[in-house]
Amino acid sequence: MLPHPYYEIACQAAHNAGEILKSHFRQSVSIRSKSAGDFVSQADLEAESSIVDLIKKTCPSHQFLAEESHRDRFDAPELWVIDPLDGTSNFLHGIPQFAVSIAYSRNGKAELGVVYNPISGEWFVAVEGSGAWTSEKFPANKSELRKLAVAPDSSLADTMVAVGFYYDRGKIMEATLRAISEFFRKSIHGVRRFGAASLDLAQVARGDYGVFMEFKLQPWDHAAGALILSEAGGTLSDCLGNPLSLNGPTSILATNGTLHLEALEIAQRNYRDA
To answer: What would the CATH number be for the domain defined by 7-147?
Structure first.
C-alpha cells in the first residue's frame, strides 16, 4: 500500500465504480447528449454516485469536483477530483478503452491519483513523492505494484505521439489536425488517439508514448493522470508552456521530459490559432 491516508479509499472507490461500469458495458443504457459528441450515460451517474457516497462516509467534510454533479472550489483544503467514466464515447460504442479517474487534492495541488480500466484490469496509481506504479490486480500490496518510468526517447523521431480531440468540431479540431501534421513531419513513429485522457497520461508514464497533447481538457480529465505522469518522471504544462491548474478547462502537453521543448514548439504554434 502506498503511503497516503486516503490511498485505500481511493482504490476501493475506483474498484466499486469499475464494477458498475462493467455491469453496464455493452448493455443498453440510457444516454443524453450534453453537446455535440459529448454524452452522459446512466453508467456515468451511477459510478459517480458510488464514488462520492463512499468517500463521504469516511471524509464528510471533504469537497468534490466531479464531471457530472459536483462543482466545489478547485483550491478547497481537501478536494476529490473525479471522472467516473473517462472515455464515455468509447464506453457507449463498446470500445474497452475507458477508465475511472480519482485524485485527491489539498489546497489546489494533487497528492494522490488513481486511474483504473475495469475491462483490462489495469491500475495506475501515484502518491506525491512516492513514485507512480501499475498493477493488473487491486493495488493493495506494494509487492504487487510495478514502478512506472517514462520512455527514454531522445527525439520526436524516436517516439509515438498520442493526441486527444475536444468536442469542438471547429477551430480546436482544425488546430489539432495541423499540429498532428507537424508532428508527422518530425518523422514520429505514429499518432494514436484513444479517447480517454487519463489513460493517455498513464501510458506516457509507462513509456508507451513520448508525447500526449490535447487542446482542451477539464480538471477531472487530467488531475489523477497528471500526477501519475509527474511521479513517473514526465513533464507537464499547458500548450503555451504554463503550469497546469485544476482551475477550469486547460490545454495540456505531457511528455517524457526530454521531448517537452521540441513538442511545445509545435503545440504552442498551433494552439494559438485554436
So the answer is: 3.30.540.10
